[in-house]
Amino acid sequence: MTKAATLLLALVAFGAFADAIVRVPLYKTTHPRKAYRNNLVAEYLKQKYVKGHKFNNLAYNEGLSDYENAQYYGTVTLGTPAKKFNILFDTGSSNLWVPCHGCPASNLACDFHTQFDCSASSTCTKTDQDFNIQYGSGSMSGKVVQDVVCFGGPDTGYCTDKTQGFACAMQEPGLSFVAAKFDGILGMAWDTISVDKLAQPMDQIFNNTQLCPKALFAFWLNRDLDGNTHGGEMTLCDTDPAHYTGNIAWEPLTATDYWRINLGGLKVKDTQITGSISAIVDTGTSLMAGPTDQVKQIQKMIGGFEVVAGEYEVLCDLVKFLPTVTLTLGGQDFALEPQDYVLKITEEGASVCISGFMGIDIPAPNGPLWILGDVFIGKYYAVFDHGNKRIGLAKAAAGTK
């Protein structure tokens, strides 16, 4: 084969790969130390994973933000002509909602964010269907509308038809959403936990097998943000080998509600903390959360000391000497080094090092379980394989500036 023919085949192959994948750049917000206060984050997680959880008003009075610890977001477009929205891609929930045009003046979060106006879109249909999601600080309420949803912009072709339902929010609870960098939420868990059983935009994308031959999406979170604004990338319909190294380890789902798998075990250095236990991979959570007794054992072994109820710090000068924490998934070991599980927060020139582990006791039937958030996903490229009902994990490639 001539060099020209070889080059042509390579270009064709690359074109086929490029056509079968859509890339959504992710951006990362910066949060103050209070965003990682474990008693506050625990309330947020319980709202997601404990049905009927009674919200702790004391925690809210201390400054709980419903999505304060969710950091990575990207863009989608809605309607015709297409209008861009910053969206939190959350694998721990299953609904799409954005602020709605015409929201009352009392809804400050709506005023400070991009609003969807059904009357300004030639493809939008209003419905009389009410939509409500209960958060600790109040209810997010609005109406269901139907319109086109596009990933990566309308020119990519990765769009739903105009019958895609989503919530147009008239009320957003609390002040937490006012300062959020994103406009709305796009839940990417399974339809079984979707409020009002609304189908998700990915359902239509995945059903178009010519456009999307692989019904999956994947997240690469860039943890190397020193002078780098690129927070990562989400891909639909294929993985990107440039974002991981080695082989992908696959773990089948144990249920199709959240992205729920079986964690084979967790150990600190040579000490086994837990054997087999349920785990959920959640892009909308910054920390790693597990049963309180197991997390306390981890904190002791990594030299964590409690500064307020549930919040642990380690001495920054000792981070490099801390032990490795290893999780077993898909028959492979996934190691977290201290620089992976310790979060260094600098405010007004002073730095503190916060443990990325927090204790939370989720009762049956959802628990007990571990929640693998960005502390874990930042180290390991995560593939959410909808078609084969499995999670894939591989070591993430280093970020580029």
Structure, described:
This is Peptidase A1 domain-containing protein. Keywords: Aspartyl protease, Disulfide bond, Glycoprotein, Hydrolase, Protease, Signal. InterPro entries: Aspartic_peptidase_A1, Aspartic_peptidase_AS, PEPTIDASE_A1, Peptidase_aspartic_dom_sf. One of its GO terms (cellular component) is lysosome. One of its GO terms (biological process) is proteolysis. This protein is α+β, with helices and mostly antiparallel strands and 401 residues long. The chain has a domain of 158 residues: Beta Barrel (Cathepsin D, subunit A, domain 1), CATH 2.40.70.10. It is 16% helix and 38% strand. The protein is built from eight helices and 28 strands. Strands 1, 2, 3, 4, 5, 6, 7, 8, 9, 10, 11, 12, 27 and 28 form a 14-stranded mixed beta sheet that branches. It has a six-stranded mixed beta sheet with strand order 13-14-17-26-18-25.
Work out the number of β strands: 28
**Helix proportion of residues, in percent?**
10-25%
Low-pLDDT residue spans: 1-18, 57-70
> Could you tell me the strand content as a percent range?
35-45%
The major sheet is characterized as: 14 strands, mixed
CATH class of the domain at 239-396: Mainly Beta
Q: In the CATH classification, which architecture of the domain at 239-396 applies?
A: Beta Barrel
For the residues shown, what is the average pLDDT? 84
The CATH topology of the domain at 239-396 comes to Cathepsin D, subunit A, domain 1
Terminal CA distance reads 38 Å
CA gyration radius, whole angstroms = 21 Å
| Shape designation | globular
CATH superfamily of the domain at 239-396: Acid Proteases
Strand pairing plus helix content: what structural class? alpha+beta
Q: How many separate helices?
A: 8
